[in-house]
Amino acid sequence: MIRSCLFVPAHNPGMLQTADLFDADAVIFDLEDAVSYEEKDAARSLLVEFLKNFKIDIKVIVRINNNPLWFYHDVAAIATERLDAVLLPKADSESLKKALSLLIRFEKERHLPKKISLIPLLETATAIMNAEELLARPRIGGVMLGAEDFTADMGIERTKSGTEILYPRMKIALVARAFHIIAIDTPFTDINDEAGLIKDATAARTLGMSAKAAIHPRQISHINRIFAPSAAQIERAQRILKKSADTAGVFSLDGKMIDQPIIERARKTVEKAKRYKLI
Amino acid sequence: MKNGVCGSMESNDCLITVEPSDKTEIIIESIVYDFYGMQIREVIIDTLNELNIDDVRVFCIDRGALDYTIKARVKVAVERMRAR
User: Fold this and answer.
1) Under the phi-then-psi rule, with left for phi > 0, alpha for psi from -120 to 50, and beta for the rest, what region is B30?
2) Minimal Cα–Cα distance from B17 to chain A, Å?
3) Do B76 and A48 lie within an 8 Å CB cutoff?
4) Are A249 and A183 in the same domain?
5) What global pTM score does this model have?
6) Which residue in the set B6, B13, B68 is minimally distant from A50, CB to CB?
7) A236: domain range?
8) A70-128 pLDDT tens trace
């Protein structure tokens, strides 16, 4: 269960060293878009040495390069016990199959104590259309929407209103929910627009996304707040659970009918609140 | 073989240049040389030993890099030198 994940360019030692200091629930070390073509080898090597030497207490995700030149080298380098998940850009059936096969191989060869999961980054029209098939595959631990590449693929403008990604958000949230995996929303790219971020993150959460990527530490507190239950929601959920424990079947609270689905939602709210240390 | 370069002059990083030589030579320029010069040298020597190399000249311009950064930069600089 995560609310926020912070993208950190893997070629920058100063940023690697502070990656877990900003209250993000997960960090995504980026070997892909944040790293220039000439620095791919240096970024990979730096990240490997960093992960060997630093213990990070939040989930570690690495975005690899989905490119024949670097795909194998990236997976081979990062498949260690320190890795929780691989974020696979431009994910499709073939690349997911290839990534899974490599992960299984390295987990076995290196006697890794846990299974590394895969998070497909859906960022093409075809990927969104095939979300059910892609997310039904083994080892999928979550899914992320990549809005910049998706809108580029569609040949449409990326806007702050997010109207153009309404359908991908809804589809990803729905399919992710059906497979019980996390749905991570695309980052909001204007790091100076706090009001825009709040609006964008709220819209994503309303549609059912369960977390959001951040590209700057200052975005994390807003994302964490928006993707966690509010104090009022927690208080009401606790009251519902308390009354449900003493009452059999349907009951009334504050003049409203409370039945099983509402009790279940209250249970999830309290579970999330505990997970995020809000109660 | 020509030289191989890796790293940057940004803070927390170092710029490593490796070139062929008859023996191992290490030249370090660091703002914290008095405190950490020996440690930087040791990391470079350990990394070269790990790579089984004893015939390179290493120039290190340090900007406060931690050991893991120096090690990673040396490894890639050597790979780049060999690839040339």
Assistant:
1) beta
2) 13
3) no
4) no
5) 0.91
6) B68
7) 231-275
8) 999 999 999 999 999 999 999 999 999 999 999 999 999 999 999 999 999 999 999 99
